[in-house]
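Box 3.1 A note on notation
Throughout this textbook, protein chains are presented in two layers. The first layer is the amino acid sequence; the second is a token string describing backbone geometry. Keep the layers aligned when reading.
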Amino acid sequence: MRFPLRLTADLTLGLAGQALRGKTWRPLIFRFALMEEVNCPPLSSEKFLNGQKSVADIPAVVRDSTAPVVWIAGAGPLLHPEAGRLTRALIVGGRHVFLQTDGNCLRRRIHEFQPVPRFSFVVEFNGMRDSHDLRAGRQGAFQDAAEGIRVARLSGFLTCAYTAIDADSTVQELQRLGEYLQSLKVDGWVIVPASTVNGNRENSRQKLLEARQLIPSRRWQLFSELVEAAAAPSDRLEPAREFSRAPQSERDICDEGVQVP
């Protein structure tokens, strides 16, 4: 797995800019859902209360944000007819765009998107086949996700796997999932806590940290922290500062490049 060099640079500049301005830290990822989703508002801006504004207004709202990354969340963005046009507008505006999907509609809608370095399809993998299908509530969900990755890669798109771990997730299963994702040649892997995690908070956090150690790229581990912070800004999760660290070795430099299929 490789982390895009341009994304590394933009995140570093974002962190440096906040430090110079001395302002309270704000998420470096502007996250919203096109379709309604539990624990994710239609748009993470007070200008879009109850989703009353149109999709055409979203790029203007994003321009008011200093976040270099836009994350279009949930399993349903591809169900929205304007998803492709919105994504193009955000990329033209200079943002890195990650569009999350369960993979179900990807083959039918992929022609509406362009394979550019600032755009990634994010496909959900919440465990191996049985666990993923159970959480998705339907058989074949895992196969749809895997097929979505294959279709996107064949079309030249960057791909990222997304795993939300809950109380039933085990590090052993996640290790198997990591091996499977590497066989699919995904470009990145993000691991975040599911909003439904219950039980001992300290134990849940330890499981999350152990799970992120399975990501074979330090940059993607740190990016997972940023995604988590964007999903729960009220928790004031601070991002790791290592995006501003200069590469110390050839391995670090390679870790920042984009993997070439």
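The first helix runs from residue 5 to 21. The beta strands are 29-33, 69-73, 96-101, 119-124, 158-165, 188-193.
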